[in-house]
Design a protein that fits this description.
Blueprint lengths: L2 E5 L5 E6 H9 L3 E6 L5 E3 L4 E3 L1 E6 L15 H7 L13 E4 L14 E4 L1 H7 L4 H4 L20 H4 L5 H5 L4
Parallel strand pairs: 1-6
Antiparallel strand pairs: 1-2, 3-6, 4-5, 7-8
């Protein structure tokens, strides 16, 4: 599915959305096309022709409520850990709780890490000390507004780069 970068009226990146939703915003005159699709694709109807957008900007400013904590999602956790196992460094496919939930561990940023299947099964509900393992990097809560744009750097159009660089802190 093709994604479009949505900018606030101040050119601050807000999120990515589907091509369908982006075209609806443009047709309802709630957003303007800033960059067209690099291949020059267009959408046609009986009465209109619309350039396929890559980046759109809202006409009115939308205030984003301050969020003191980034929501813990699978996509965000994998991105935080760069899709690498916290124990061995191989490609991660699962999420593991450092302090197992069966032993009182919580489902929080500080207790969850990306893990490969092998390490996750081997660790099971044991503590790291029991196995003699250690974490490659201590799990922390991600910070910054750019976490609203999960995956934008990976799937994005090259035209998005100038808008994403400002937020990548």
């Amino acid at each position: 599915m093709r994604q479009v970068l949505l900018l606030n009226a101040t050119f601050e990146p807000l999120t990515t959305l589907s091509l369908h939703r982006a075209v609806v915003l443009v047709l309802r005159e709630k957003a303007d096309v800033i960059h067209r699709d690099g291949r020059g694709a267009v959408l046609r109807s009986a009465s209109r022709t619309v350039d396929v957008p890559s980046v759109i900007r809202l006409r009115r400013y939308v205030r984003i409520p301050y969020r003191s904590r980034i929501p813990l999602t699978r996509a965000a956790l994998m991105r935080r850990d760069d899709f690498r196992c916290a124990y061995c460094g191989q490609r991660a496919e699962t999420i593991d709780h450092v302090l197992p939930r069966s032993r009182g561990g919580t489902h929080t940023w500080e207790n969850c890490v990306a893990s490969c299947m092998t390490c996750n099964h081997r660790k099971a509900d044991k503590l790291l000390d029991e196995l003699g393992w250690s974490l490659r990097v201590a799990p922390v809560v991600p910070r910054g507004a750019h976490w609203r744009l999960i995956g934008a750097q990976l799937i994005g159009d090259p035209q998005w780069a100038p808008y994403l660089e400002e937020t990548a802190a």
